[in-house]
Each structure stands twice: as C-alpha cells, then as structure tokens.
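Sync notes, pocket subgroup
Present: LS, DG
LS reminded everyone that the earlier model was apo-only. Rerun requested with zinc ion included. Inputs:
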Amino acid sequence: MFFRFLGIILLTINVFEHSEINLKMQNFTFHNPTKLIFGKGTIGEIGPKLRGASFKKVFMIAGGGSIQKTGVYQQVVASLKRAGIEWSEAWGVRPNPVLSKVREMIQMAKVAGVDAILAVGGGSVIDSAKSVACGYFLNDVWAAYEKHEPVIRALPVYAILTLSATGTEMNGFAVITHEAEKKKWNIYGPALYPRVSIVDPDVQRNLPWSQTVNGTLDALAHIQEFYFMGGDSETTLALDESLCRSMIQVTDKLKRDPKDYGARANLAWAATLALNGISGAGQSSGDWATHGIEHALSAINPDIAHGAGLGVIFPAWITYCQNVNPAIFKRWSKNIWRSSTVAGGVRALKAKIKAWGSPTTLTELGICREQFPEIAANVIQYGMTGNLKKLSQRDIQKILMLAA
Ligand code: NZQ
Ligand code: ZN
C-alpha cells in the first residue's frame, strides 16, 4: 500500500516535468510489397500462386494442430496437390515462439532443399517462418535479432493467416524468444514481407474467445503506439480512431455471436491495417514502450499471451505518460471512449477489457511485485523503451506498479 502511494506521488512529480510536444507530420515512405488475398474460400489460391511463381517445393510450418481441426490444413494440402507443388512439413511452433525451434526448422529446411516457406497459422507460426526464411542464409539467426547481422536475404515467405492480431501477414517484422536468455526480441527487413498472404476470416469462427480478444487488444495496441505520438497527421489520426472504434464494435458483436462472418472479416481487415504501415504514416516511428514491456513479461513468463499482456500494460502506460502530450490523450478519451477526461478514458478501456474477460492486472497474469526489477531490467536490455517518452528503469517500475 505504502509503495503504491509513494509510486503515485513520484508519478505526479514526474509527469509534470514534461511540456506538451507538438509533432509535425513526418515524411514517410509507404511501400508494402505483400499481395493480400482476403475473404471466404480463398485458401485454395495458395497452390496456383506458388506455381505461378515457378516454385516446386515448399517448407510448410505449422503450430500445435489447430489447422487440422479447422480444416485449413486439408484445404492447403488439396490446393498444393492440385497445383503439383511438393512440400515438407514442420509442426509444433508454440505461442511466444522460441529460438530453439527456429534453429531446428532451419536445419530441416536445408535438408529438404526448398524454394519457399509456407506458414500456416497465427503470428507465432508466421514469425517463426520469417525467421527460418532469413536464418537459412545466416550463420546464426539470433545474430540478426542481436543486430549483429543485417537481414538482407530470405527465402520467399507465403502465409495463410488463421488468427488476426499481429499484422505480421503484411509487414516485415518477426518476434521470437531466446528462451535460455529470456529475450523476446524482434527483427525487421524488407525481405521478410510475405510475398502473398491469404486471410480467410471464416476459419477464425471457432477461435477460443480469449484468442479473439488477444487479437483485438494487440491490434488496438499497434494503433495506439502510433496514435499517441499525436501531432498534426490528421488523416492518419482520424483513420486510427475509425479503426479503433470499428474493432471495439465488431469485437462486441463477436462476443454475442462468434460466428458472425461480417464482424470477423472487419476485425481481420482492421488488424491487418493496424500494422502494415498505414496506421502509422506520418507518426514518426511510434512509441512502442508498451510493446517493450509486454515482450519482457512474455520473455519471463512465456505463458502470457501477447495481447493479454498489452491489455494490462497499456492503461498503466497511458496513465503514466498522459501529461507528456495531453492533447492527444484527451482526444483519444473523447473520440474513442466519449469521456471528457483521460482518467475516464482509461477507466472505460479497462472496463471494456474486463467485459471481454481479459485480465486488467499483473496479478491476474501471475506476475508479482518481486519480479518488477527483473522485468524493468529486461526492457532496458531490449531497448524498446519508447519515443514519446523514453522510459528509464524507474519509469518502467512505476508503470508496473500502476498495472499491479
Ligand atoms: O498452435 P496452434 O495449434 O495453431 O494454435 C494457435 C495458438 O495456440 C491458436 N490458433 C491460431 N489460429 C487458430 C487457433 N485456434 C483455433 N482456430 C484458429 N483459427 O491460437 C494460439 C495463439 O496463436 P499465436 O500465433 O501465438 O497468436 P498471435 O497470432 O496472437 O501471435 C502472437 C505472436 O506474435 C508476436 C507476439 O509477440 C507473439 O509472439 N507479434 C508479432 C508481430 C509482428 N510480427 O509484426 C507484432 C506483434 O506486436 C507481436 O509482437
Ligand atoms: Zn503487438
């Protein structure tokens, strides 16, 4: 109790040190090379797309088996056979995917002698596939994550997305965990954009509810990471607000009817737009401290789902950083949550997360206060500490305190 009270006093002093920033619309280059094929019944297009690119053999990467239950695997295999494409398979990518599995799959891909990688699954599968694709040409794939080696070459990546959340189906990022060193880090490279991604929202109709919510919370967080930079990129800010409102609305609809195709399709498209370059155009490179903190949580406890962790940290980060750029936080509260105060906006966000059945405290995620120093140190080592406000180790601990 005392520490929480002390934390609030320190926080109050800290936030008033900052004057309002006024970010001008930044120059940007928008180039997204991924061909996105979207809609019901589109999975069968994978074979012809691979054949059209003259590939003969692909390396299929999958997770723990959901694609067999949903029938996605059967559709992919039928399409590959019809197109005369050979393939070999690697299964068992886990959520919060790990380096050891990526290394194992790089060896398998080399032995199999493949022309391209085909990822069939959620963000963890696609990120692992991207890592295999570039790791194929590197001495050690982790060196790229440590930024010791640039990501220049990669086998072509094709993706069948089964969970809308991360945006990885249409971006050049990948995130994996070095489990021995507890580092959940990322790489980026133009070569990592999937050549073709297929998104059939209908295959998400039987997703566990918690995964649907994790997806929404992740996509909302991606937009917020850009949006809170504020400034005068009115087109982007207005687009971001629309995306947020739309995602909240359709997630509510899915809570009532998980099989509502219209709601699934709108959520899927919004989640892709949230991190394919459009939602951040003109917004500098975004803040990303909340993501930095979440990655540390999942690195330390791999059972924490990325979206669930973000749902706990984002409200605390907003509370902590609101006075760095008051206008944008007030605008968000008013335009998304119809509240005249930021505290009201944060309350409404947390109430919505709770109503969706997702955690709003670190305690619910199984994280205790004794772990805060380790988590904060992990974020500092990762270096993803924010751009709107560069967080120190103490700042991070205070945010964790607010999220406790
Ligand atoms: O493994 P399977 O059996 O396939 O089951 C998965 C997994 O258990 C299941 N699932 C997927 N599609 C399904 C389904 N279950 C039923 N029906 C379906 N249609 O869902 C579970 C979670 O899958 P996962 O791939 O881990 O989830 P998500 O797509 O949310 O990916 C999260 C990972 O992506 C990273 C996260 O940090 C996390 O490691 N991120 C990647 C980013 C990127 N590359 O741009 C950006 C993000 O900020 C994020 O960091
Ligand atoms: Zn994310």
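DG: The chain has 16 helices and eight strands.
LS: The longest helix spans residues 234-256.
Action: DG to write up.
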